[in-house]
Specification:
The structure holds 2 protein chains of 2 kinds. By secondary structure, chain A is mainly α. Chain A is built from 14 helices and 4 strands. In chain A, strands 1-4 form a two-stranded antiparallel ribbon. A two-stranded antiparallel sheet of chain A has the order 2-3. Chain A is globular, with a radius of gyration of 20 Å. Chain B is α/β, with parallel strands linked by helices. The chains are: A mainly alpha, B alpha/beta. The interface between A and B is medium-sized, with 25 and 27 residues. Bound molecules: adenosine-5'-diphosphate and magnesium ion. Magnesium ion binds next to helix 1 of chain B.
Chain lengths: ~325, ~500
């Protein structure tokens, strides 16, 4: 418990530091609007990262999320283009994401295959399926997109509205946190990631759980794909290559251990916001190349992993 | 009057790839009975328990609870039939708290939402039932607790449900005396309430202290079921080792081996130890002498050899060679010091099946020379032919692949490999396992010859008679401790069994 609070604290400190830097160098940085935009801009990555958090806590990994996001976006764009109502298109996309994840989970569990390889195959597969649906970027033109979604934004202050994408993000954070902390399902995820053999002997339905965990990740990725269409007003089968790594980085910076058994959604939220803040700082600066964001994220990720390693070693030594 | 048995298992069969772990095993548990399941390591005790609790599907046989046939498909399923289990290795979740571990899968919920306060209360109650005076913090992370506490938590979890059968697989191996006593009094209370308890331990004292009945397994087969009061300790140990006590008594004393006293000590081992493998141990290895290691499987025999040979480096104590203290922290170092070791499992750590006899024989020599110096082919051929002849390895040629040889001939090839480096100490771990009788006699003959030539040998064998026949001195091990050292006339099967049973 203490250990987890420590990482959350470290995250909060980094967040404050980044905000401090922003506040000192740029005016208008410490405003509600910037924060709301941060939420909205990082919503799709954050939602995928929440699904990833479940998977990583259970001791696995899901490399297919970015491809599923891209597939979902082009699937929705194409079906809406073909005349399907957007809400129906989204519902179908969510089902497909769930089924795709469940299939991956079943393969991993039933054939005892490494998650890395199964989801790597899934990554190529979903990416390819996206191209089959359509290989060009397709704009979505529908009242739901041009009107309804915009009207759903909640006014917070004068000229500041909480966009629907940010609302989705918040909803997933709350639901994910609840699921992990207050349900038996959540306990089982930790149990499997911490010691799968023991979990089985303690009566955890490991097989069924793995299917559900990957299904959940697929669902989150599809939801993230829906959010992407709100954000971009279009679908594109070739976008977001490598986004799964951002999702993994968010989870890891947020204190989720790749070895499984440890982590949580609040941490991942902070991790995602930290990544977003770095991005925002770079774009506020204006003259820095965007790739600097990657370099800072790389350094930060390394620092966090080192600190976690040191902490857990210290704690082990103290015993 | 005998009541209907609580649990019966009949003709249980279970195979793993390459191992028949259970062969036609029967087991009967009555309510209010503490039934000890005994046998050496690998006898199949844990497998029997895992078959009973649905961890492994059974290949054959029948199981019934109170007369009704059952087919548990998972530990949770077994719990529904009233069978609660503490498995051998502590099987809990290290990253969860004590309370979460006790209640995993049984959390109190309202509309699907876990009520953490109730969960913690329930965990506290479960622990209170064990009457632990040092209060365990139910909110502590399990991996921060000592192994003993973890064991208690596992037991608390098992007792947290209403069970008719409680299974404890080696629950006391990580408990101290007071904690074990606490467990025994709990077991007595549960017994009085009519629970049937299956208890696995390798501590004989504990068996006789608590159990009513004893079932002995050996090599996956049932040896028999006995009433604890009617089975003397010596008999129990003899049966676990596959002997009958009468047989042991009748055995003649082996022909006394002429030992010249005052042999030169080659290697002195002083307080050598490794955590989890062997407790501090002292012994000497003398020139021209065979030192036997005896004890039940799992008593630390192979572990001693492995620490000595540097497979698992010792974490305390020292090895003195010719009076000089030396550290042996790797097999390579051991080989440079002139040690050779024939491992227990020649398939996995000895033989290289796809190389020829010649290549297998010169392997250790080559390793000793280093990778850069090549042994001239002529010399290699001569060495190989020499050993094929000396050890009578039955093969058409030295180029034959080792995988095509019989087990006994493979064993000879490995012995030849070690002999090629002229070791001063040769460690033989189960040199005759799985080998036909004829070859076995040849290997024993070879052991005597090497000894007479002045080599020092360390012999480990599950066949007690083999140890007795070939050793000048015997160390008796129990629970990773040396408990006795016998020499010359004192070495007999009976004496060794007595020592272990004490
Ligand atoms: N999961 C497994 N896979 C393969 N072999 C196994 C497995 N479990 C046990 N065995 C083998 O079955 C035999 C009995 O083992 P076990 O039941 O653990 O013995 P015990 O508990 O009496 O020490 C051993 O030879 C062991 O190597
Ligand atoms: Mg066992």
């Amino acid at each position: 418990m203490k250990r987890r609070h420590l990482t959350l604290l470290a995250n909060a400190l980094v967040l404050l530091l980044l905000y401090g830097i922003g506040g000192v160098y740029f005016k208008n940085f410490l405003t509600l609007r910037v924060f709301v935009n941060l939420l909205g801009d990082n919503a799709f990555m954050g939602i995928a990262a929440i699904g990833m958090t479940f998977v990583i806590i259970s001791g696995g990994i899901d490399l297919s999320v970015a491809s599923v996001i891209a597939f979902t976006s082009i699937f929705i764009a194409q079906t809406v283009h073909d005349g399907l109502h957007p809400w129906w298109a989204m519902a179908m996309a969510l089902c497909l994401g769930w089924l795709f994840g469940a299939t991956q989970g079943w393969l991993i569990s039933f054939f005892e295959l490494p998650p890395f390889l199964v989801t790597l195959s899934g990554m190529f597969f979903a990416r390819g399926m996206g191209y089959i649906v359509n290989d060009v970027s397709l704009a979505i033109k529908h009242g739901v997109y041009s009107q309804t979604i915009r009207n759903l934004a909640i006014p917070l202050a004068k000229n500041v509205r909480l966009p629907f994408t940010a609302q989705c993000f918040i909803l997933f954070i709350l639901a994910g946190t609840f699921l992990l902390a207050f349900t038996r399902f959540g306990r089982y995820i930790y149990a499997i990631g911490s010691n799968e053999a023991s979990a089985r002997l303690m009566g955890v339905p490991v097989h069924r759980m793995k299917i559900l965990i990957y299904a959940l990740s697929g669902f989150c990725a599809a939801a993230s794909g829906c959010v992407v269409t709100f954000y971009m007003q279009s679908g594109n089968s070739s976008s977001f290559v490598g986004l799964e790594m951002d999702a993994i980085a968010s989870a890891v910076i947020g204190g989720t251990l790749l070895s499984g058994g440890v982590g949580g959604v609040p941490g991942t939220f902070l991790g995602a916001i930290i990544l977003g803040l770095i991005q925002a700082l770079i774009s506020f600066h204006g003259n820095l190349n965007n790739w600097w964001a990657k370099i800072f994220i790389g350094i930060l990720l390394f620092l966090f992993i080192s600190i976690q390693q040191l902490l857990s070693r210290r704690l082990r030594a103290a015993r | 009057m005998r009541q209907e048995p609580l649990l019966t298992m009949r003709g249980i069969e279970k195979s793993f790839p390459g191992v028949r772990a259970l062969k036609d095993v029967d087991f009967t548990l009555r309510s209010g009975q503490i039934h000890a399941l005994m046998g050496e390591n690998g006898a199949g005790k844990s497998t029997l328990i895992k078959v009973l609790t649905g961890v492994y599907p059974r290949d054959g046989g029948d199981m019934a609870m109170e007369g009704t046939r059952i087919f548990p498909s998972s530990p949770r399923d077994a719990e529904k039939f009233g069978i609660s289990t503490v498995y051998q290795e502590v099987n809990l979740i290290p990253h969860l708290t004590v309370a979460e571990n006790i209640c995993l899968g049984r959390e109190d919920r309202a509309a699907g939402i876990i009520r953490w306060k109730k969960v913690r209360e329930r965990a506290r109650k479960a622990l209170a039932r064990l009457e632990l005076d040092d209060g365990i913090d139910v909110e502590a992370q399990l991996s921060d607790c000592s192994i003993a506490v973890q064991q208690m938590v596992a037991i608390a979890r098992a007792l947290d449900i209403d069970a008719k059968v409680l299974i404890l697989d080696e629950p006391t191996s990580s408990l101290d005396e007071a904690e074990s006593d606490e467990l025994f009094s709990i077991m007595a209370r549960l017994k009085k309430r009519g629970m049937g308890i299956i208890f696995v331990t390798h501590f004989l004292d504990q068996v006789y202290r608590v159990s009513d009945a004893i079932t002995v397994l050996r090599n996956g087969q049932l040896v028999g079921e006995y009433s604890a009061a009617e089975l003397p300790r010596l008999e129990l140990v003899a049966r676990m080792m596959g002997k009958r006590a009468e047989e042991v008594k009748r055995l003649e004393k082996r022909a006394a081996v002429t030992t010249k006293s005052g042999r030169k000590t080659v290697i002195s081992v002083r307080r050598l130890a490794r955590k989890g493998s062997i407790n501090p141990i002292d012994f000497d290895l003398n020139e021209g002498e065979v030192l036997g290691l005896a004890g039940l499987l799992g008593s630390g025999r192979s572990e001693t050899a492995e620490v000595l040979f540097g497979v698992d480096a010792a974490d305390a104590g020292e090895i003195e060679i010719d009076g000089r203290a030396t550290k042996v922290d790797s097999p390579a170092k051991a080989m440079r010091l002139g040690f050779g070791m024939l491992t227990e499992d020649r398939k996995y750590s000895g033989i290289i099946p796809n190389l020829s006899i010649k290549e297998n024989i010169i392997l250790a020599m080559q390793a000793k020379l280093g990778p850069l110096k090549k042994i001239p082919p002529r010399q290699a051929n001569e060495i190989a032919d020499g050993f094929i002849k000396a050890l009578d390895i039955r093969t058409p040629s030295r180029e034959q692949l080792v995988k095509n040889l019989s087990g006994g001939n493979q064993q000879k090839v490995i012995i030849a490999r070690w002999l090629a480096i002229h070791p001063r100490l040769l460690i033989l771990d189960e040199p005759t396992r799985g080998i036909d009788v004829g070859t076995r006699a040849e290997i024993e003959e070879l052991i005597r010859k090497l000894r007479d030539e002045g080599m020092s040998l360390l012999l480990i064998s599950s066949e007690l008679d083999e140890v007795v026949r070939n050793s000048q001195r015997v160390l008796v091990l129990r629970d990773r401790n040396k408990i006795a050292e016998l020499a010359g006339e004192d070495i007999s099967e009976q004496r060794i069994l007595h020592t272990i049973a004490q």
